[in-house]
């Protein structure tokens, strides 16, 4: 059987097509990352007029600093909570919408809207809802005997940023889970129904295993989201307080670098955060992907 092949005689055309993206990656990603690594080995005055090479001094100080280790622990709690909450709710909403026939598009549109909201706007929105003076949620919680005050209670403040960050990410997870559920072969579902399996059993024995590639992808995306993209939410709701109770690693980079003008330590924190995300991603691909059924 003869197959037609298209040959491009312009040898440099593929490289020219890739050039804009390569330039953007170099200027906005590779170059800043390289500068952060370089700055992490230096001590620089706030005005950038003088630098001194200090080697690994910033890294040794950070790894022995209780405040940084506390921020790392808080980030772990925050990342696990946001990832679990947003993925579970996204899956639940996707499963509910997938069972609808007539109004599925309407509910899909409603559930996608929060993703269009900027993170800082999402933070301000939930700050207003939980405002101790004028917010609705403290009034409702007080009816159940809970006196809400995220300005003084660190646990309440952590719950606030977890809820705000998860709410922002639910729409993204919902879209992918819904697409995955709609791609499940109906023949399998019908065969299971004929065998007497109910909706719940069909979901856990057929749909959920077939969603493992989507779940694995979303797991990586959500972990990266909690590590980097939640800075505006923290800044708009709690500003890292009270008493550093909601200071995550990415927000501590901002505090020490932009507010404290400790550029060397801030750069070292950026490098460590990048290494943590790289290690987590490697572990996920190395060990978690084995359980994925393609």
UniProtKB/TrEMBL annotation:
PROSITE patterns: ABC_TM1. The lineage of its organism: Bacteria, Pseudomonadati, Pseudomonadota, Alphaproteobacteria, Hyphomicrobiales. Residues 72-284 form the ABC transmembrane type-1 domain. It is found in: Cell inner membrane; Cell membrane. Coiled coil: none annotated. The chain crosses the membrane at residues 12-31, 71-94, 106-129, 157-181, 202-221, 268-288. GO terms for cellular component: plasma membrane. Part of the ABC transporter complex UgpBAEC involved in sn-glycerol-3-phosphate (G3P) import. Probably responsible for the translocation of the substrate across the membrane. Belongs to the binding-protein-dependent transport system permease family. The complex is composed of two ATP-binding proteins (UgpC), two transmembrane proteins (UgpA and UgpE) and a solute-binding protein (UgpB). GO terms for biological process: transmembrane transport. Keywords: Cell inner membrane, Cell membrane, Membrane, Transmembrane, Transmembrane helix, Transport. It is a multi-pass membrane protein. This is sn-glycerol-3-phosphate transport system permease protein UgpA.
